[in-house]
Design brief:
This is Aminoglycoside phosphotransferase domain-containing protein. It comes from Candidatus Curtissbacteria bacterium RIFCSPHIGHO2_02_FULL_42_15. InterPro entries: Kinase-like_dom_sf. The chain is mainly alpha-helical. The protein has a single domain, classed as Aminoglycoside 3'-phosphotransferase, Chain: A, domain 2 (Alpha-Beta Complex). It is about 55% helix and about 10% strand. Strand 2 and strand 3 form a beta hairpin. The longest helix has 20 residues. It is globular, with a radius of gyration of 16 Å.
């Protein structure tokens, strides 16, 4: 639905399909899977991933943006998250609208049946905000989620983790520019919970 993972003009087709994107994220997380793992393993997997992202960020950047404090918020909120399957790379440029109007999703190597709820839609919001550089659309998506009764407190935990992931992504760029990662960090701090 977005041609590339870069700032671009967002099409009306993309915007009009946001409700379908939300429904698709819910379809994935509501898949019935056999889960042989122990109860609570999804919390550990999620926290370990967020910690690995944090550890991959240069120390001076961690300190400048107080990312350890953000990680503590993730650690505090993770216990509220239920185990749910996830695609793991639920980005606008991996969604394709088929001729029959349904959505298809590619690039599923990050799929995980021991994920946490709301991960995919949180990932999508972070990518819209920080990679497509469209904070207004990210806010519109969040507003739609709130209107549909989604638990914004739980989503905020996901978004905090994705903030750390966004800083890691930027630290790996040839010429890091943390401006949108920082705007996203500040934005999630303003969310009502």
């Amino acid at each position: 639905m977005a041609k590339t993972p870069a700032k671009s003009k967002i099409s009306k087709l993309f915007i009009s399909n946001i409700p379908k994107v939300i429904a698709f994220s819910q379809l994935i997380q509501n898949l019935k899977t056999k889960n042989p793992n122990q109860k609570g393993i999804h919390h550990e997997i999620f926290l370990n991933k967020a910690k690995s992202w944090l550890d991959g960020i240069p120390n001076d950047i961690q300190a400048k943006y107080d990312l350890e404090k953000l990680y503590k918020k993730v650690a505090k909120g993770v216990s509220d998250l239920k185990a749910k399957p996830r695609h793991g790379d639920f980005a606008p440029w991996h969604l394709i609208k088929l001729k029959d109007g349904q959505l298809a999703l590619i690039d599923g190597e990050h799929a995980l049946k021991n994920g946490v709820e709301l991960y995919d839609i949180g990932y999508f919001i972070q990518r819209v905000f920080s990679v497509l550089k469209n904070p207004k659309l990210a806010q519109d998506i969040l507003n739609l989620l709130a209107h549909q009764g989604f638990d914004i407190k739980k989503l905020r935990c996901i978004l905090a983790a994705r903030t750390i992931g966004g800083f890691l992504d930027e630290s790996l760029a040839h010429t890091p520019d943390y401006s949108f990662a920082d705007q996203f960090r500040k934005w999630i701090g303003t969310l009502d919970v």
